[in-house]
Amino acid sequence: MKRALVTGASGTIGAAIAKKLAASGCHVYLHAHTQLEKAAALATEIVDAGMCAQVVGFDITNPEEARAALEKTLVSGPIQVLVNNAGIHDDAVMPGMRPEQWARVINVSLNGFFNVTQPLLLPMIRTRWGRIVNISSVAAVMGNHGQVNYSAAKAGLHGATRTLCLELASRGITVNTVAPGIIASPATVELFPKEILTKLVPMQRAGTPEEVAELVGFLTSEKAAYISGQLVNINGGMA
Description:
This protein has 239 residues and is of the alpha/beta class. It has helices at residues 12-23, 36-48, 63-74, 99-127, 138-142, 148-168, 186-191, 194-200, 209-219, and strands at residues 3-6, 27-32, 52-57, 81-84, 130-135, 173-180, 231-234.
């Protein structure tokens, strides 16, 4: 049984991805930090359905804390499927953006990617098989008013993905980025009413978390062994 880690698994997209990986036969570690109760409820749901999941809690912006937590999971064996999904918003137009807003968003999405991924690489390399998927955003591809920090953090994953792909390709490990557009969640219902979605999205609807999870499920499967270093948009045709 392959072992998978999904960061930010308590969120809407992270939870859908975790369920998909569990359904595909992985033992899934559900990472959370401030929402451990939600992650625990998700783990219970997955286990009750006859699949394997457990919660791992740590702050991905703290290198020492992240490494210590990950080393505990590695005692049972390597993580071979990693989905770097964690990310936060702290929006403001750049003329009014505070330094701490910039640093906080960069720390979670970009520094967090390093803090989680780097300790898992050597054990993964030794197995000569692995799948890494980094979850970006349409904001990193197209830009979005008030999200210079978020766009920069997620766009940084694109370059990291491309280079890490080159470093790991000969080891049977693929590295890809998925960039969701407007995905249905309690927040997007308020932010993007139907009339706004019709203007922004050619398909005139929000995507579902399950649609993102299906894409991630494919990229982490044996069938995607020759796909690496790619940025895959899932946004209903937004250009």
